[in-house]
């Protein structure tokens, strides 16, 4: 039996979950906001990352940090069509890739369509690819709602049908559903009823407590106990967990979400007139962006170049060897050309890296002359505005060392702050931070400052006159 430790019971003993049994019987997690559902899912994903293929449907982008530690592929659906997502679902099963489907940057309508298309692609994969997959769906009430909400009926039917297939017919195809929800009353009953394992967390509404008690086989008067559970405590029941309802406290995790919890910060006294000028400052109006057209994916130029090279090699056995020496100035120039392309700030890193590889091949360099990690570092340095001559200096090497300890998606933000602090420039504004984070959302970009302060790599100070950032350990600070 392959078991993993989920947490500790009331008596301090380990509470385990039988993974093969879980794959056969599915799991339902319920708890109000703040009860520890995301922590529980993260614990489950971390403990099984090396044991079984995983697919995470992530509506809030909380689980993208798994990629750094466990090699998960993060798929951002912002620029993907339903057809490409459906094909991606089939290919994920064929290549047995562990994936995080990140839905945070799209609206509710597209979240339902993207999740439905991707899950249907996994469900329709050929029989030869029916390997076991742990499919975790956070905020499942969004994808399998009882009633229609602000989204169209078509999107709701697509998502609900995919969730029903996952929980009702997925077992024979190797799909093991793990669904988490804040409200059992809002989750479609035909989806929830297929789970045989339950982890019920803190709940306050009577209708949810009564339904949780029914699922656990508890008396109605015993349902009041759900209100007394602490954060991270769950009542466990099921063939993969326990034959009788059992209290379990979820264990620690190694990764963490980028989201930060509420922290009380004392208010600084500011004159009302100063606040008036700041709050009512005129906002420039921008022309609306043109709507993107759904176009077929471009041909794989790298594959064509490689095929062309192979044909030429067969025709002419004696060929001059490609240049293999790493020329820093030439590499810097190629990355600069990629970064200078229109819209490059908001393109996925994989697209920019493919563009760099294509340019390298055109100049007679091997396509793997620079790995993805080094490309990301040089690109972030370029976007920070640092000159080539200073990039190899000892000061900047120290900043890059600190950046390497951070998640990959925030390294560019940190290096932008580092460059402004190194030269005692004013702190970058929200638009500059958003470009460094490759997002159009200014609020999402601002949250990265709080995350970096939480990681204790910067000290942030904000007052009525602006924002100031100091780098911990380097002694640099913005103007």
How does this model look, in words?
This protein is an alpha/beta fold and 479 residues long. The chain has two domains: 3-250, Rossmann fold, CATH 3.40.50.300; 325-471, no CATH class. Helices cover 42% and strands 15% of the residues. It contains 19 helices and 13 strands. It has helices spanning 19-25, 37-48, 66-70, 82-95, 108-123, 140-143, 153-169, 189-192, 206-216, 272-279, 301-315, 328-340, 349-362, 372-384, 388-391, 394-404, 408-422, 430-436, 442-454; strands at 3-9, 14-18, 27-30, 53-58, 73-76, 99-102, 133-137, 175-181, 197-200, 233-238, 242-250, 458-463, 466-471. Strands 2-1-11-10-9-3-8-7-4-6-5 form an eleven-stranded mixed sheet. It has a two-stranded antiparallel ribbon with strand order 12-13. A hairpin with a 2-residue loop joins strand 12 and strand 13. It starts with a strand and ends in an 8-residue tail after the last strand. The model is unreliable at 317-324 (pLDDT under 50).
Examine the coordinates and then state which fold CATH places here, giving the name of the CATH topology of the largest domain. Answer: Rossmann fold
Reported for the largest beta sheet, the result is:
11 strands, mixed
Give the proportion of residues in helices. 40-55%
> How many β-strand stretches?
13
CATH architecture of the largest domain: 3-Layer(aba) Sandwich
> Spans of 5+ residues with little confidence (pLDDT < 50)?
317-324
Going by helix content, strand content and strand pairing, the class is: alpha/beta
Strand order of the largest sheet: 2-1-11-10-9-3-8-7-4-6-5
Q: What is the alpha-carbon Rg in Å?
A: 25 Å
> Quick one: CATH class of the largest domain?
Alpha Beta
Coarse morphology: globular
- CATH level-4 homologous superfamily of the largest domain: P-loop containing nucleotide triphosphate hydrolases
Q: State mean pLDDT (0 to 100 scale).
A: 82
Number of helices, counting only DSSP H or I runs of 4 residues or more: 19
Q: For the terminal residues, how far apart are their CA atoms?
A: 60 Å
Number of domains: 2
